[in-house]
Structures are given as C-alpha cells and as structure tokens.
Amino acid sequence: MIKAVLFDLDGTFADTAPDLCYAVNLMRKARNLPPVPEEKTRPVTSSGARGLLGAGFGITPAHADFPAMREDFLNLYEANLCRETRLFDGMAALVDKLEARAITWGIVTNKAERFALPLMRLLGYGTRAACIIGGDTTGKMKPHPEPLYAAAKAIGIAPGHCLYVGDDERDIQAGLAAGMKTVAVRYGYLNGSNPDAWGAHAVVESPLAVLNCL
User: Fold this and answer.
1) Shared domain check, 96 and 53
2) Does the annotation count 19 as an active-site position?
3) pLDDT at 71 over 90
C-alpha cells in the first residue's frame, strides 16, 4: 500500500528550465555572446550546472574555467530563482488530491538545499511538503538511494510504502535501489533518454496520472 509520494523537483514537480536558461544567458551576455534558446538547455536541465554549462558554452568539468563558471552560474541562478519557474500543469491538483487522501508527499532532489528550500517556499509549497531532501542533505546524490532512505526516515514511512516520481533515469535507479515503487514522467526533461527503458514500474504522461499508480 502506498502511503507517501516523493517527487524529484526539476522536471517533475516544477518546470525550472526557464530560470536556469536565464542564468546561462546572463553569463553569455556578460561575455558578449548571443543568448541560447531554451530548447537547447531544457533537455539537460536535470544535469545541473554540468549540463547547462555544457549546452551554453560547450565546456565540461575538465575545462580549466569550469569551476569559476559554475560558481558564477550558481550565484546568478540563486538571484533569479523563481522568475518564471512554475509547477507543471496538473501538479497542484495532484498535491491537493494527495493531501485530501491523507497521503504524505515530499521532495527528493539533487538540487542543493541552498536552492531547493527557498524555491519550494517561493512556489508556496515549502511548508506543505513533509520533507525536502536536497543533493547535499545526506552527502550522497541520486542514483544513490541514500537521499530516498533519508526521506523515508524523515516522514516515518517505510521505503516499501513510498512511490518515487522522477524525470531522469537516475531517479528511477535510486527509487528501485531504495525498494520504492517508481514512476517516470514523460513530460519532464528526460536528458535525451527514453523513460520506457528505465525499468520504472510505470510511465505517465501527466502529473494527475500518478494517481493511477497508487
């Protein structure tokens, strides 16, 4: 029996791609470069600074300038955290329905707490989420299952009674490793991958379809 639903944040719970692309383009503007379209950065949004700087500047973490550019990017993003970020269509209704059924819900993301906690507050869900586990909460990041174990402990519900919903293969890998039921969302960023190949218990087209997986 599912007693809790845990969500990935970027690409699953909220569409953060516009503001992350905005930070990339602020960096490009400062370097007298034209903006990149969001269509270029959106697919790699779930890969964080590594993916976004790769899409925006063609560099990898091995590049000598990467550490400084990463810090610049994160500072710019932090200053523009919720300009256009919104919940995906249907997510607010899903949360309402979960709460109406007394089903606990929370967030497990690889996004650092520095961004995840204020973003959830700005979206109006900071106090409604039963837990917000960031990428630096446990010292481990997905696909490691430790963040999901931490979430289960925080909400007092065994992993086997939790459903984890995500838009990246790492989400499904982490959920399966933690012994949770897993749902992949086709509406997310997907990182150029096919969610049907991830081994999730279910793949859904929209947030409200998660109700069919409980």
Assistant:
1) no
2) no
3) yes
